[in-house]
Amino acid sequence: SASADSPYALLFDCDGVIIETEELHRLAYNAAFKEFKLVIKDEPVEWSVAYYDVLQNTVGGGKNKMFFHFRNTTGTFPTSEDGTPAPVTPEDEQDLVDRLQARKTNLYKDLIAEKAKARPGVLELMDQALADDNIRVGVCSASTKEAVTKVLDVTLGEDRRKKLDVCILGDDVSKLKPDPLIYVTAAEKLGIDPSRCVVIEDSIVGLKAAKGAGMRCIITYTASTENEDFYALGCDAKVPELGSTGVSLDMIFGPMKADGVDAAILSDV
Predict the structure, then answer these.
(1) Does the annotation count 13 as an active-site position?
(2) Cβ burial 182-221 (10 Å sphere, 16+ → b, else e)
């Protein structure tokens, strides 16, 4: 059985945790919809801030968000102002969503290069963990490899990114959050029991994935998620951001090393 000096893992979600990206994603989707001239009942396809909050707390992954929108919210796929009819077969629907996602990713990368910066306290905590021989560090994000690598290189820097022990992205797993597969896969790759892994997340979707994998989970909430009842779904601690509350590695793993993996964490915050 694992002892207190066996390794632990600190796993970061990317969007909303390492970087406040949700608004950049929304702008990139809307720009892609506009380029494709998409309309439903003569109204342009556009996601408002409030609606994107709902999507982000309901559905993991970009393509899944579009399918949810066209199948559940509007109940119909869009036509194009240039006369292109709405797709009718599942293959055509998939093709439209694939093309939209590819264009959105490129638009998003442009926005990232222009506007990206890490959320307060993230780099400090990550550096403490990277410097600790007993802590493995990883990023687990539902976004595509292309999008996340760009975000990480801009916000963490390439050197820090290359020091990560594991980086599991949406392309690497067959099921996206809230399914726990991404975190289960990370634990397997690291060879660390899930009970010794602590996840930093920002949404209900991510929290469900972390808890489903049997891990501890700290929520750094954002303006779009601050009113969610994270504790009801098993979150272990909740802070507005890591920087302003001075979260350190020892505040997370100190109690787990001293009192066991189920010990209360961040109880002083």
Answers:
(1) yes
(2) bbbbbbebbebbbbbbbbbbbbbbbbbbbbbbebbbbbbb
Q: What is the pLDDT of residues 41-97, one digit of tens each?
A: 999 999 999 999 889 888 888 999 999 999 999 999 999 999 899 999 999 999 999
Q: What is the pLDDT of residues 214-257, one digit of tens each?
A: 999 999 988 778 888 999 999 999 999 899 889 999 999 999 99
List the catalytic residue out of 5, 15, 179, 202.
Answer: 15
- Nearest Cα residue to 33 out of 46, 48, 50: 46
Q: Which residue's entry shows tokens 């442009």?
A: 110
The active-site residue out of 5, 13, 127, 250 is 13
Residues 40 and 78 sit within 8 Å (Cβ to Cβ): yes
| DSSP character string of 38-87 | EEETTEEP---HHHHHHHHTT--SHHHHHHHIIIIISSS--EETTSPPPP
d(CA 11, CA 210) in angstroms, rounded, equals 10
